[in-house]
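Let us begin with a simple case.
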Amino acid sequence: MVYRRRLLLSHASFGEFVVRPAPHSRGGLRGESDRRPLLSAEELAEFLQVPISTVYVWNHRRQGPRAHKVGRHLRYRWAEVEAWLEDQAVVRAA
C-alpha cells in the first residue's frame, strides 16, 4: 500500500486499484460524502500505469481525463477520471 497526499491506493487481487480516502481524511465538504483529494499528473500516471509523458501529451491534445489548472499545476478530479475510464471500455460483440 502506498500513501500519497491523504490518498490510499492499494493493489487488489485482480490487478485493479482500489481507491479510498486515507483513514485521516476529512469527509464531506458542502455535504458531499465522496469528496476526495485531487490527483496530480504524476499520481494519475501511476494510477493508470502509463508514463507521465503520456498524461502531458493527452492534456496537450485535449485527450484523456479533463485536467484543471491549480496555479501552474495540473490536477484531476477522481469522478472525471473514473468517467473517462468508463468511456474507454472496449465493447465486445456478443
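The second case is a distinct protein. As before, the sequence precedes its C-alpha cells.
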Amino acid sequence: MSYNAKIRADAMSLNPIDDALFVKMAESLKVCQEMLRVFLRDKQLIVLENKRIFKTTEEGVNEMCEVIERNRAEARAEGRYEIVADMLRDGMNIDTVARIAKMTAEQVMAIGKKAAVL
C-alpha cells in the first residue's frame, strides 16, 4: 500500500465518534475554533473557515488526507527537534549531530539556540 493510500485509508477509517466530532465542528465556526483551541492547547488559534464536507465528498476526503499528512509531518519535525536538542544537551558535537540527523550544521545550531542549549 502506498503512503498516500495509507493516509486515505486512515482518513476513511475514522470511527463514528470522530465523524460526529467533525460534523459538530463543521456546524459552527465558533465551536470548531474552541474545540481546536482545547485540542491544540493554543488559546490564540483563530479558525478562518470550516467546511461540512469531510468524508461525504471526494474533496472532503482529500482535505482530511492533507490535514493528516500535515499533522504527521509536524509531529515528525517536533520529534526531530527534541532529539537534536537532547543530543546537544548531552554534549554531542554539532557536526556529528548534523550528520546523524541529516541536517546542516546551521540547522542544528539554530535548534540549539532555540532550545537554549548553545
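The chain has a mean pLDDT of 81. The CA atoms of residues 72 and 79 lie 10 Å apart.
Keep these points in mind for the review questions at the end of the chapter.
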